């Protein structure tokens, strides 16, 4: 397993060092947290691609690409994504470890990533108009293209109906109607405010000397800081008064069913949360699950069916591809499988296979560079401090009674069906 060390750099900037000799590359990731907010979500969705279009010292994509070539084919990544009721801006650079080449480039890579983030290309008090115009069109195309993935589209529509009035319903890519009004100057001023007021996590993963990397980060990442915003914890408990049923028609060949449940389990209650996770695996976590074996295999009602848990929001989703004429029967049997779970009708084989699948998934976190970076940031995001080993131990000790206790308060909130 990896060796992990956390360093408080002050001003709500956290450095995490993850040492592993498993890979021939080093990864530096910078995560910037924002509250998921309707008023700024579209601006935030634009920012990563605009920022990585050019910096003060590397003002064009051609010059950035040339720099990446000088780093022996390093890669630069950026993204804005939604995690529960938070929006995360991410900037990453991945390059070969100094041990495998004839020169030392790791410190220069850190310096370069800082230049991209802290010294964006600015003209006339704002981002370059040409870059902003291009990325506005790219974002519009991305938002419009979301409907092409019907499975993801149905999931988002279920969330929209289920969580209306909650931050979680806000689209992570923003809204097309907001794009045109965003100016280069306004977006740049917004970005400066983000760097000044947001919690920031810097995560370095690879094979390196701790002190060397810590010093390199401190020397380069000097953010101008102000009053840091408070990122509130997402609300995870909500009682359901009436089940919402939403049907949408579209010219499609296969219906998409999504059922949203309120699980009402605090992820910071370690025992209960991992009992929910194991319970979800028994319910719909794979080919070993009740949903797969009863809805798909035994009754042949669907093309696919699975369940998933949104950790921080404590919502469970069931997603399935079905024919329209099977809608009522599929919903009925899905509900029956959940009742069996609540009543403890879980075989030893179901429990063992569910635990095995989850443990194998946990172990695979270390299989690729970046896996532990994401895991450690997730712990920071949730203000928890579990290791992969802790997670595995929590899964191993879950009993049927633990699952029954964890799932007893699950309530159906919304049924969404996209049909032809």
N-end to C-end Cα span: 49 Å
Globally, the shape reads globular
* Class from helix and strand fractions: alpha+beta
Helix content: 40-55%
Mean pLDDT: 96
**Which sequence of strands runs across the widest sheet?**
1-2-8-3-5-4
Number of strands: 13
Low-confidence stretches: none
Please state the CA-atom Rg, rounded to the nearest Å.
Answer: 23 Å
Describe the model.
- 42% of the residues lie in helices and 23% in strands.
- It is α+β, with helices and mostly antiparallel strands.
- The protein has a six-stranded mixed sheet, sandwiched between helices. The chain has a five-stranded mixed sheet with strand order 9-13-10-12-11, sandwiched between helices.
- Helix 9 (270-284) packs across helix 12 and helix 9 packs across helix 15.
- The longest helix has 17 residues, at 129-145.
- The relative contact order is 0.16.
In a nutshell, what does this entry contain?
The chain is built from 15 helices and 13 strands. The protein has helices at residues 41-51, 61-70, 106-118, 129-145, 150-162, 176-179, 184-197, 210-220, 270-284, 290-298, 327-342, 348-363, 371-381, 388-396, 400-407; strands at residues 3-8, 13-19, 25-35, 75-83, 86-96, 122-123, 126-127, 200-206, 244-249, 255-262, 302-310, 315-322, 411-419.
Which descriptors would you attach to this protein?
420 residues, 5-stranded mixed sheet, 42% helix, 6-stranded mixed sheet, 15 helices, globular
């Amino acid at each position: 397993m990896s060796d992990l060390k956390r360093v408080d750099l002050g001003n709500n900037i956290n450095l995490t060092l993850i040492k592993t000799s498993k890979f021939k590359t080093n990864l530096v990731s910078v995560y910037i947290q924002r509250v998921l907010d309707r008023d700024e979500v579209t601006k935030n969705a634009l920012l990563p691609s605009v920022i990585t279009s050019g910096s003060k010292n590397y003002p064009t994509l051609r010059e950035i690409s040339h720099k990446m070539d000088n780093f022996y084919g390093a890669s630069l990544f950026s993204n804005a994504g939604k995690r529960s009721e938070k929006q995360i801006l991410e900037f990453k650079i991945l390059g070969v470890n100094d041990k495998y080449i004839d020169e030392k480039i790791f410190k220069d890579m850190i310096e370069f990533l800082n230049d991209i983030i802290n010294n964006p290309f600015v003209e006339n008090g704002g981002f370059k108009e040409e870059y902003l115009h291009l990325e506005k069109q790219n974002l519009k195309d991305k938002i419009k293209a979301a409907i092409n993935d019907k499975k993801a589209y149905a999931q988002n529509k279920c969330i929209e109906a289920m969580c209306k009035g909650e931050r979680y319903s806000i689209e992570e890519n923003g809204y097309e109607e907001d794009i045109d009004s965003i100016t280069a100057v306004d977006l740049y001023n917004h970005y400066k405010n983000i760097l000044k007021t947001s919690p920031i996590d810097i995560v370095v993963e690879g094979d390196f000397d701790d002190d060397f990397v810590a010093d390199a980060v401190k020397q380069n990442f000097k953010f101008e800081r102000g009053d840091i915003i408070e990122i509130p914890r997402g609300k995870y408990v909500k009682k359901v008064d009436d089940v919402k049923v939403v049907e949408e028609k579209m010219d499609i060949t296969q219906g998409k069913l999504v059922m949203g449940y309120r699980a009402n389990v605090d992820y910071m209650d370690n025992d209960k949360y991992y009992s929910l996770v194991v319970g979800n695996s028994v319910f719909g976590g794979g080919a070993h699950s009740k949903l797969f074996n009863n809805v798909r295999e035994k009754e042949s009602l669907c093309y696919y069916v699975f369940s998933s848990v949104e950790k921080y929001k404590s919502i469970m989703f069931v997603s399935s591809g079905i024919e329209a004429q099977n809608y009522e029967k599929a919903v009925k049997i899905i509900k029956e499988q959940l009742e069996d779970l609540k009543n403890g009708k879980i075989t030893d084989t179901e429990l063992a296979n569910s635990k095995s699948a989850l443990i194998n998934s946990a172990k695979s976190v270390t299989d690729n560079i970046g896996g532990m970076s994401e895991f450690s940031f997730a712990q920071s995001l949730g203000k928890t401090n579990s290791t992969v080993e802790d997670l595995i131990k929590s899964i191993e000790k879950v009993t049927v009674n633990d699952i029954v206790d964890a799932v007893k308060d699950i309530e159906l909130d919304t049924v969404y069906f996209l049909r032809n």
